[in-house]
Amino acid sequence: MTLATLTARAQQSEIFAPDGKAIKGYDVVAFFKEAKPVDGADSLTYAYKGSDWLFASRANLEAFKANPDKYVPQYGGYCAYGTSQGHKAPTDTDTWTIVDDKLYFNYNKKVQNNWSKNREELIKKADEQWPLIKDKEK
Fold it and tell me: What is the DSSP secondary-structure string of the chain?
């Protein structure tokens, strides 16, 4: 594949996966179990929705495999605020939030702060926008 093909494919991905690693290689189960970002290990990888998901422990890998929809971030890990505005935006792992047992990320702390002020309404908007943009470029 050419670099242009890889770039186009990455932008169209349903999952935010720089370098093919979902959520920059962080263990998504750890956000629920440990309430913090934890790096995943290359040796504990699971392919799902066209991306590699990394985990910090075998138990977290098995929990994900048993119920990936419980752990996959909303909007594929793209910015929840950006999704509510009808576009995909990358995210910073330190902006995570769990709302009603669902994991959300934002572009940066400033965007997260704005999103938090009207979170319920913005989640509704993002839920409406996501099916329209999930397979499109940014």
Answer: --HHHHHHHHHH-SS--GGGBGGGGB-HHHHHHTSS--B-EEEEEEEETTEEEEESSHHHHHHHHH-HHHHSPGGGGSBHHHHHTTS----EEEEEEEETTEEEEESSHHHHHHHHHTHHHHHHHHHHHHHHHTTS--
